[in-house]
Amino acid sequence: MSRKIRILIVEDEEAIRTGLIDVLIYHGYEVDYAIDGPSGLEKALSGTFDLILLDVMLPGLNGYKVCDRIRSGNREQAVIMLTAKSSDEDIIEGLSLGADDYVTKPFSVAQLVLRIQAVLRRSKIGISQSDHIELGENIVIDSKNLSGQQGNTPLSFTRREMDILQYLNTNAGRAVPRDELLSKIWGYAKNADIETRTVDIHIAKLRRKLEPDPSQPRYLVTIRGVGIKLMSN
């Protein structure tokens, strides 16, 4: 008999936490919870969870710091951040620390369940990968170590950023639609009714790391009405 998928909820608002526990148990998940940052971090580091739902505004230790500590110990741990902050800067901070996705409050329970299912499904998706990606004359990316060099400047990437680069590199002859990236990289079912700017934010982050001028992208080029195309030269 296969074990149940284990989810840790780190949320200090009792009404939200209780609702999430009920919904996730109803969907067949095994659920544990913590009500503040320090206890959430302790459980995350000592337990084995398939997914962590992590609120940003936590007492004792905020969600950003908890996520950073989790990632320093386990770069593959799946994390979805729950946030009342919806500005790009706040979302980028969470994603930059390695969160797989974010959900802004107030959220639809149905949308959250879709996000959870997608992130859990993501680990089962195989992507044809190349160990090295070269862009232009001075960018070399090492996919296995989530790192690279731009001339003499070291580069570092999150697992999700590298997945995007690898998929775009595998499909370098064409522009990849946003919906395809959501399906192949994030694991969302095709045609799922998902409202997210995750793809746009990740592409913007990658442009800031790789492009000489992010406002005039040379490598990660948007083909209007089609998608994103990776240009090696």
Q: Topology of this structure?
A:
Blueprint: E1 6-10, H1 14-26, E2 30-34, H2 37-46, E3 51-55, H3 63-73, E4 79-83, H4 88-96, E5 101-104, H5 109-122, E6 132-135, E7 139-142, E8 147-150, E9 153-156, H6 159-170, H7 178-184, H8 198-210, E10 220-223, E11 227-230
Parallel strand pairs: 1-2, 1-3, 3-4, 4-5
Antiparallel strand pairs: 6-7, 7-8, 8-9, 10-11
List keywords for this structure.
about 230 residues; single chain; alpha/beta; four-stranded antiparallel sheet; five-stranded parallel sheet; Rossmann fold; Arc Repressor Mutant, subunit A; 2 domains; globular
CATH-wise, what's the superfamily of the largest domain?
A: Response regulator
Q: What number of domains?
A: 2
Radius of gyration: 18 Å
Strand order, largest beta sheet: 2-1-3-4-5
The topology string of helices and strands comes to EHEHEHEHEHEEEEHHHEE
Describe it.
- By secondary structure, this protein is α/β, with parallel strands linked by helices.
- It folds into two domains: 6-122, Rossmann fold, CATH 3.40.50; 132-230, Winged helix-like DNA-binding domain superfamily/Winged helix DNA-binding domain (Arc Repressor Mutant, subunit A, Orthogonal Bundle), CATH 1.10.10.
- The chain contains eight helices and eleven strands.
- The strands form three sheets. Strands 2-1-3-4-5 form a five-stranded parallel β-sheet, with helices on both faces.
- The longest helix is centred in the middle third of the chain and has 14 residues, at 109-122.
- The protein starts with 5 loop residues before the first strand and ends with a strand.
Brief rundown of the structure:
The protein has helices at 14-26, 37-46, 63-73, 88-96, 109-122, 159-170, 178-184, 198-210; strands at residues 6-10, 30-34, 51-55, 79-83, 101-104, 132-135, 139-142, 147-150, 153-156, 220-223, 227-230. It has 233 residues and is of the alpha/beta class. It has two domains: 6-122, Response regulator (Rossmann fold), CATH 3.40.50; 132-230, Winged helix-like DNA-binding domain superfamily/Winged helix DNA-binding domain (Arc Repressor Mutant, subunit A), CATH 1.10.10.10.
